[in-house]
Inverse folding.
């Protein structure tokens, strides 16, 4: 097997990311490893998330785990599939968003009301789209929390809305589409009531109340970059008040 | 460029329970090897072993001296070609020799003189992308993947910035990259 180190200390996480190839240089595994206590803890949390996801989706991502004193590494399966371009924003990514919301509902609709589990970074960037399915990756922020159902799906929607808002004014067709996504979440029993009236405001509040999950990354999250005015403005257009 | 002086380079090797002969002492590398489960041998006469024992007293059973060498090594790690094992020990077989090549002179020497002594299929070469401090990217040369700029340009040292800018220009060109960017050479 041939390896290449593709990223060290990504987002200051202390985690090494490597690609493992077969003899024909086709990617076979993604290896994540850590040698500092804090980063080992993060990686172990990710394994908790992946294991939970496997139990709910039957998608196995883990090939091998090595645990030594002061070192932890995980070989993840490499999935061939498409990834949306995060920078394209909401409209160009709408078909991916629809699939991501459907995928979210397939998993989270199975959970009971009291089972509050979040991926924590459910971004279009962390989903691999295969022909028929989708695979959610990067479970580093996986948490059993008090954050209500629907949080991750809304995170994906508003993140893409934010990216698009940097380039252009949000047109009515985008607002309509985002509202449809919210409805889909509600009717799949995947959106807590708290998000019905002012979803973005409720999202920001959930993030602030649980800042320990994201630490220093919190202020860098696209959702947190909407100011009060933008937040109120969007909440007046994207909501489930009349549904 | 001093980029190979980081445990990040060890990520491209499988080291758990492997026997590794280390001919030079670089704290981070040695620490990285031990953490990754390697058993290390260092020269008994050198000061490296003493230093290593001082740094990792709790892991002393992982650091061995050459008075008691194994029958074979999985890897040897050396800074520069021909410095990896003392002559008196060169009868011990080594499966893979890892050579860290830093700096233009060492690279030129390797490319002009040493490389020819080995069959192509016996040598694997990795390029180490330049960075301020820690290794960010190690790519097998065979992969022909474009190397990207994986470092910030903000440094208090303008010379370092200039050096990195030049390095960036070099890595864009695959031929120049072969000659001027730090390498990890693995000889089988």
């Amino acid at each position: 097997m041939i390896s290449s180190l593709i990223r060290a200390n990504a987002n200051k996480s202390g985690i090494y990311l490597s690609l493992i190839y077969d003899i024909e240089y086709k990617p076979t595994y993604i290896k994540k490893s850590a040698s500092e206590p804090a980063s080992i803890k993060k990686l172990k949390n990710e394994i908790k998330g992946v294991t939970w996801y496997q139990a709910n989706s039957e998608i196995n991502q883990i090939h091998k785990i090595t645990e030594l004193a002061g070192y932890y590494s995980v070989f993840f399966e490499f999935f061939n599939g498409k990834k949306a371009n995060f920078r394209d924003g909401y409209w160009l990514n709408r078909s991916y968003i629809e699939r991501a919301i459907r995928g979210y509902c397939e998993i989270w609709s199975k959970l009971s009301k009291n089972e509050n589990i979040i991926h924590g970074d459910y971004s279009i960037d962390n989903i691999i789209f295969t022909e028929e399915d989708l695979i959610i990756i990067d479970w580093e922020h996986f948490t059993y929390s008090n954050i209500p159902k629907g949080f991750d799906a809304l995170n994906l929607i508003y993140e893409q809305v934010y990216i698009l808002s940097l380039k252009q004014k949000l047109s009515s067709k985008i607002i309509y589409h985002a509202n449809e996504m919210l409805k889909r979440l509600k009717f799949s029993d995947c959106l807590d009531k708290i998000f019905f009236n002012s979803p973005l405001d409720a999202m920001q509040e959930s993030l602030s109340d649980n800042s320990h999950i994201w630490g220093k990354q919190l202020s860098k999250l696209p959702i947190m970059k909407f100011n009060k005015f933008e937040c109120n403005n969007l909440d007046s257009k994207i909501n489930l008040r009349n549904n | 460029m001093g980029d190979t002086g980081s445990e990040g380079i060890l990520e491209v090797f499988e080291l758990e329970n492997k026997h590794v002969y280390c001919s030079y002492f670089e704290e981070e590398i040695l620490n990285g090897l031990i953490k990754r489960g390697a058993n290390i041998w260092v020269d008994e006469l050198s000061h490296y072993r003493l230093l290593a024992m001082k740094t990792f007293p709790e892991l002393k059973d992982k650091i061995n001296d050459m008075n008691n060498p194994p029958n074979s090594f999985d890897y040897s790690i050396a800074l520069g070609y021909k410095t990896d094992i003392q002559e008196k020990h060169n009868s011990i077989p080594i499966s893979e020799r890892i050579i860290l090549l830093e700096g233009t002179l060492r690279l030129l020497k390797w490319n002009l003189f040493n490389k020819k002594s080995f069959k192509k299929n016996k040598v694997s070469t990795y390029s180490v992308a330049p960075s301020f401090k820690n290794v960010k990217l190690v790519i097998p040369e065979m992969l022909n993947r474009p190397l990207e700029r994986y470092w910030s340009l903000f440094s208090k040292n303008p010379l370092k910035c200039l050096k990195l800018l030049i390095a960036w220009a070099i890595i864009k060109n695959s031929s120049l990259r072969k000659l001027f960017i730090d390498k990890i050479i693995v000889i089988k």
